[in-house]
C-alpha cells in the first residue's frame, strides 16, 4: 500500500474522494508519524483526536454522497499563532502558556470547513519574532535536514520553523504559516518546500496572535505549488471581523495553474546582488532565469533602488507595532500572572500593579521579544517618533513605489529567497544583526504588501536545499503560482531529508 505520509494535499484529497483510501487511514498514518518525530520538536501540542474526528466526518460525508471540500481528508499542522477553540494557543511564549481560547481563528475555521483536520499546534519563534526558531519558550525546532556527513542540528528557519520542519519531514502534508517579514518564505527555502505569502489582506488576521499588524499575513506551506494553491484557496476570503480584510472574490488558483509563461516578462532586480550572498544562491538564481526563459518568459532587468533601506525600515516599523500589540499581555486578563517577592516592590507588600506588570512581562517574554519591545517603544517615544518611525514609513512608501515602477516593465520578479542556506542552530545567537540579515530579500515584498512565494530550486554542495523567490503585483497570486509551477516542473526538486529523528 502507498505510504500515505509521503502524499501531499492534492493526492490525499483526490485519493479520499476516489475511495483509494479513507480519511481515517490518512489521519492514523500521520498521527503515528508525528508521534515518531518528537526529536524535531516541531509540535508544541499534538491533537490526534481532532485529526481523527475530522477524518471520520469526511468519510461519513463521502459515504452519504455529499460534496467534499477542497481540503477533505487532509490533516495539517496549525502554527501556534492561530487561536484554536479548546486547544492551547501560546505563540510559543511562557506568558500565554496554558491559554485555551473559546473561539476559532477565521483561517483555521475555513480550513476545518473545507474538510481539513488538525495534527497539532506547531512550534515557532516566540510571538513570530525570529529567523531560526530558537526563541521559542518550548525549545528550538530542528530541521530534518543535515549537512552531508554531519550530525550538527540545523535551523529550519523562522518564525514558521515548526511548520517547515513538519512538512519537510513528511509528518504533515501541509501547514499554516504567517509571514511578517519572510516567516513563510525563509523557512520554506531552508527546508526545501513551497510557501506563499499572499497579498496583504487576502487571509483574515482575526484570531491570529498579532506581531506587526500592518505586515502580518497568513499563508500555506506545502511540498508543491499545486498544494499551496489548493490550501490558499481554502484559507483566503473576506472577513468582516478583520478591518484589513480584502472584500474580493477568491479566485480558483488551482484551476487556473499554468506553467506556460509565453508573453510574460520576469524582472531581475539588480539591487538583489548583495555582498555576502552565497555563490550557490547566485548560481541557482541564474538557473531560475534559464528555467523561466524556457517556460516562455522574457527576462528583463529592473531596479528597486530603495532595497538597501527596506530592512532597517522594517526593523523600526515591526518592533514599533509589536510594542503596541504586546502591551495587552500584562497579567490582568489572561495568561501568566507573576508577582515580585514580598518586600521587593515599590509597595510594602511588593505587589502593586506596576510591580505585577513588570514581574509578569519579565518572566513571560523571552529575550528577543523584550529586545523588540524595547526598540519599538523607543522609536515611538516622544522626541524619536518623527526621527525614526515617521522616516521608516516614508521609506516603506518608497519601497512600494519601486515595485509599482518595476511592474510597469514586468509581470513577476525573480530573486533569491535567502542570502544563504540553512545554518547550524546556535551559530548566530550572539549576533542579532546578522540573524536579521536573513530576511534581506524577503522584507521588501512584505513592506509593500505583495504576494511572494518561495519554491525549492536545488541542493548546495553541503546537501542543503536552496529556494527561489517570486514576487507579484498586488492580488496577482496566480502569476506568482504560475511562475512557481514553471520553476517546479523544470527544477524537478525531489530531494528529501534522510531520517535521523
Automatic annotation (TrEMBL):
Tree of life domain: Bacteria
InterPro entries in UniProt: Amidase, Amidase_CS, Amidase_dom, AS_sf, GatA
HAMAP family linked: GatA (MF_00120)
Entry's transmembrane regions: none
Active-site residues from the entry: 79 (charge relay system), 159 (charge relay system), 183 (acyl-ester intermediate)
Residue ranges constituting the Amidase domain according to the UniProt record: 29-481
Quaternary data: Heterotrimer of A, B and C subunits.
Function: Allows the formation of correctly charged Gln-tRNA(Gln) through the transamidation of misacylated Glu-tRNA(Gln) in organisms which lack glutaminyl-tRNA synthetase. The reaction takes place in the presence of glutamine and ATP through an activated gamma-phospho-Glu-tRNA(Gln).
EC number: 6.3.5.7
Family per similarity comment: Belongs to the amidase family. GatA subfamily.
Gene Ontology terms describing biological process: translation
GO molecular function: ATP binding; glutaminyl-tRNA synthase (glutamine-hydrolyzing) activity; transferase activity
Class of the enzyme per the UniProt entry, highest EC level: ligase
Keyword Cytoplasm annotated: no
GO CC, any one term: glutamyl-tRNA(Gln) amidotransferase complex
Gene3D superfamilies (UniProt xref): Amidase signature (AS) domain
Protein name: Glutamyl-tRNA(Gln) amidotransferase subunit A
Species, as recorded: Erythrobacter sanguineus
Catalytic activity, reaction form: L-glutamyl-tRNA(Gln) + L-glutamine + ATP + H2O = L-glutaminyl-tRNA(Gln) + L-glutamate + ADP + phosphate + H(+)
Region (Disordered): 140-168
Keywords: ATP-binding, Ligase, Nucleotide-binding, Protein biosynthesis, Transferase
